[in-house]
């Protein structure tokens, strides 16, 4: 008995979603990152895996990004001239930009606050959005309004 085309298409899509989610998990493990914490439902797995896959995970893309990072000039002098409340948020498990880069950036900006997030990589987990918003609000509240 022949299966309807719609069934085959749905089965392929489901297999594709599972493949994407598995590959994202493998890449995180390869990078020494913890599993994504918000993958508690099939729908969130589909959404997060789809976003990551659509963004493109390719060795060439990673190499381009690393090349861009490594060829940037030292901005320390320019950062020292800033006179605005500032915040640097950096994950302790960031494999794209070592945590020392976040520390150096925050040290170069006068009065900068540094928020190091244990276990976070080069991503912005939904579970930390409130933490980030609170930190941004705290820094924004330091702004003196001129009248």
Please provide a written account of the structure.
It is a single chain. This protein is mainly α and 147 residues long. The protein folds into two domains: 1-57; 74-147, Rossmann fold (3-Layer(aba) Sandwich), CATH 3.40.50. Helices cover 54% and strands 7% of the residues. The protein contains six helices and two strands. The chain has helices spanning 5-30, 42-55, 59-70, 76-80, 99-108, 129-140; strands at residues 87-91, 113-117. The protein has a two-stranded parallel ribbon. The longest helix has 26 residues, at 5-30. The protein starts with a helix and ends in a 7-residue tail after the last helix.
Features of the shown structure:
mainly alpha; 147 residues; 2 domains; two-stranded parallel sheet; 7% strand
Q: Which SSEs are present, and which pair or pack?
A:
Layout: H1 5-30, H2 42-55, H3 59-70, H4 76-80, E1 87-91, H5 99-108, E2 113-117, H6 129-140
Parallel strand pairs: 1-2
Helix pairs in contact: 1-2
Briefly, what is this?
This protein has 2 domains: 1-57; 74-147, Alpha/Beta hydrolase fold, catalytic domain (Rossmann fold, 3-Layer(aba) Sandwich). Helix content is 54%, strand content 7%. The chain has helices at residues 5-30, 42-55, 59-70, 76-80, 99-108, 129-140, and strands at 87-91, 113-117.
Characterize the overall form: globular
| CATH fold label of the largest domain | Rossmann fold
Number of helices in the DSSP assignment:
6
Q: Percent range for helical residues?
A: 40-55%
In round numbers, the mean pLDDT is: 79
Count up the domains: 2
Which stretches are low in confidence, meaning pLDDT under 50 for 5 or more residues running?
Answer: none
The radius of gyration over CA amounts to: 20 Å
> What proportion of the residues form beta strands (DSSP E)?
5-15%
Strands in their spatial order, largest beta sheet: 1-2
Name the structural class. mainly alpha
Specify the CATH class of the largest domain. Alpha Beta
Order of helices and strands: HHHHEHEH
